[in-house]
Amino acid sequence: MCVKKTLRFSGQSFSLSVLDFSLNSADGIVGDIEKLPELKNLKTLVLKKCRITPESVVGLSKLITLTTLDFWRISSVTLDGIKLSGTDALKGMLGLSDMFIPTNPCNLELLSLIGCGLNDRDVKPLMNGIGNGLVINELRLSANRLTDTAVNYLVDSSGTLLPLQVLDLSINKVGISK
């Protein structure tokens, strides 16, 4: 309900396309966004360093998957600094099956997971999902604990055409010889 109170600061009518809710408690944000008409045109959701459970991250799937024919809700999601290591939150949020095949249509312009403590095992569903048709145009994975193995997941699972246009793997352990 904090989002609702924030949006009610003026009696004027408006429709937000970007919501930056960084450094707040975001466990109830999905319900708030679904209920508020002021957020019906929301395209960008920024949740940097929010207090949010893995279950609530999975709940974001309601906001990023196809809601009606040819209508995508949120197309840019930033979860920077949220510790997601050791959870299935990414797999659930992106609607991936146990074989990492997208089960719900999802089309993201941007998914930012900078500094989320992710390791190779954590991003395997994401990388394989992209190879299996998950559409993400820009993926930011800098400042995690990724190695060449994470890149190999993407390369090994992909066909000849990937929707991925930008991949940020800076400040990781990719390409470092032992």
Number of domains: 1
| CATH overall fold name | Leucine-rich repeat, LRR (right-handed beta-alpha superhelix)
**Low-pLDDT residue spans:** none
Give the number of helices: 7
The average pLDDT is 86
Share in helix: 25-40%
The SS-based structural class is alpha/beta
Taken as a percent bin, the fraction of beta residues is: 15-25%
Overall strand count: 8
**Level-2 CATH architecture:** Alpha-Beta Horseshoe
Q: Report on the biggest sheet.
A: 6 strands, parallel
Output the CATH class name: Alpha Beta
User: Kindly, what is the distance between the CA atoms of the first and last residues, rounded to a whole number of angstroms?
Assistant: 50 Å
Basic shape: globular
Report on the structure:
By secondary structure, this protein is α/β, with parallel strands linked by helices. It has a single domain (15-168), classed as Ribonuclease Inhibitor (Leucine-rich repeat, LRR (right-handed beta-alpha superhelix), Alpha-Beta Horseshoe), CATH 3.80.10. The chain is built from seven helices and eight strands. The strands form two sheets. The chain has a six-stranded parallel sheet with strand order 1-2-5-6-7-8, with no helix packed on it. The longest helix is centred in the C-terminal third of the chain and has 12 residues, at 120-131. The radius of gyration is 16 Å and the shape is globular. The mean pLDDT is 86.
